[in-house]
Each structure stands twice: as C-alpha cells, then as structure tokens.
Amino acid sequence: MSSARGSHPVSAPVRRSPEHEGRRPGGDFVQSLARGLQVVRSFGHDRPQMTLSDIARETGLTRAAARRFLLTLAELGYVRSEGRYFSLTPRVLELGYAYLSGLSLTEVALPHVEDLVARVHESSSVAVLDEDDIVYVVRVPTRRIMTVAISVGTRFPAYATSMGRVLLAGLDEEELGARMEKITFRRLTDNTVRNKTELLRVLQQVRAQGYATTDQELEVGLRSAAVPIHDRTGAVVAAVNASAQGPRMSMEQLTAEILPEVIETAHRIEQDLAAHSLLP
Questions:
Q1: Maximum Cα–Cα distance for the chain, whole Å?
Q2: What residue spans define the domains of the chain?
Q3: Domain 1-95 falls in which CATH fold?
Q4: Which CATH architecture has domain 102-275?
Q5: What percent of the chain has pLDDT over 90?
Q6: N or C terminus: which one in the chain shows less Cβ crowding within 10 Å?
C-alpha cells in the first residue's frame, strides 16, 4: 500500500462539489457542508495522511478554508493531526454505518460469498454502483492480492473492474449514456480500457454473455470475473465477483472453473432475496 507521499494509480478520483462539476446548486444547498465532505473524501487508500497543502490541492479549496474545515473535523473527532500530517479517525465510519448496516443485501449475500470463497479458494466481493464508481458492500478475502487493501466501503472506477462493467451493462441506455459522459478514463495499467468507444463495445459483450471479466486492467497481475445480482423485477442491483492473481490462474481457468461458481452464488443470493422479500 502506497503512502500519502507516493503515487496513486488505482484510487477513484476525488469527487468535486456540485459547483466544480458544472451543476448549479439549489437555494437550499449548504456549501460549507459540501466542502467539509470534500475534505473527508479527499483521503483514500493511497492518501491516508496529507498535509494542509495536499488537502487544499486535492479539494480545490484555499489553504485557509481547508484549515478551518480540518480543525472543525478534528474538534468533532473525525480527523487527527500528527505534526504536519492529517488523517481520518475510525469515527468517520459512523457516517456510513447506518446505510451499510441497514443494507439487507449485505446481510443476505455475506454467507453465500463466504461459501464461494471456501469452494474456490479465491477472494470474492459484492459491490453496488455509485455514480461512476463501484462501492464494496461485502468483502471476503483469502489472501492479499492487491497493493491496496480492500474493505467494505472501498471504491474503484467502474470502467476498469468486472463488477463495474456488470453494473454499467445493467443500466438502460439513457442512464448509461449519462454515466458515460462523467467518466474520466485513466490508464491504470497497459490493459485498461482507454475510451468510451472501447468501453461501450465491452459492455455490449457483457450484456450478450451475462458476465464480465477483466485481465489486469485495475492492477497488474489481477484477474476477475463478475456476474449481476438481480431483484425480482430483473433489474441489476449489485454484482458479485471472484478475483485471482494472474500468475496462478489464466483467464481460461478463471472462465472455466471459477465463473460457474460465481454464477451459482449470484443465483443463491437472488433466491434468498426473493424468499425474504428484501428487494421489491
């Protein structure tokens, strides 16, 4: 895992506030709250500690404004300082706990994902789509297979992940078009899809075959296969995957041996969701 002073090849780009994204906020918009959340979201796996200058640069705020927000967050217990460096405290988990703990999909999916990992001896996760990122809501690792740690709440760009492609492919054309306009394509590895045209071609294939695979697009050496999780109406509400290190498993092995198990896991999750009426 790289430090705050290193490069950050796979972390999702920092979200700008609505005025930075070209949207005009309404009259009830609280700009100070939005900017405070910007400061919180500027931290990440590759930026666990930052100086005041780092935070000002990442958020687009002035040093004076960034300092005020940091001191307020520190007073509330969400930020700590060590010399010149600031970092988040575990208390920030409270901000998302109500959502994550109340997400019935997580509770239903977890035992099935644990069973999948026990069968295939590879790491598995469940993710949902949030704007143009995926957000992990279930994570069961077998070993450390990436240079960044993955846990519940981790975000990655959807276009470079198998789960992201399954989720994007599940959108209708209007929604997909809107999401595609917001994507900033970055070459995370030499294999990463490079532009909108390439991604649309990949998503057409995903829709046709019902699953997605990636071969070292998010990180060198990482291969992954994912399938959608549907609600009772047939809408895609999440994705489940299995990931493996390239040197140990070829794409052919991943597709032939691991993918059928992932598909079976998705079916079991869907059956339990329907049985418990946890999704509409």
A1: 56
A2: 1-95, 102-275
A3: Arc Repressor Mutant, subunit A (1.10.10)
A4: 2-Layer Sandwich (3.30)
A5: 51
A6: C
* Each residue's pLDDT tens digit, 1-46: 333 333 333 333 344 444 344 455 666 778 888 899 999 999 987 7
Rounded CA-CA distance 159/168 in Å is 8
The label of the residue with tokens 């997400």 reads 103
Amino acid letter, 4: A
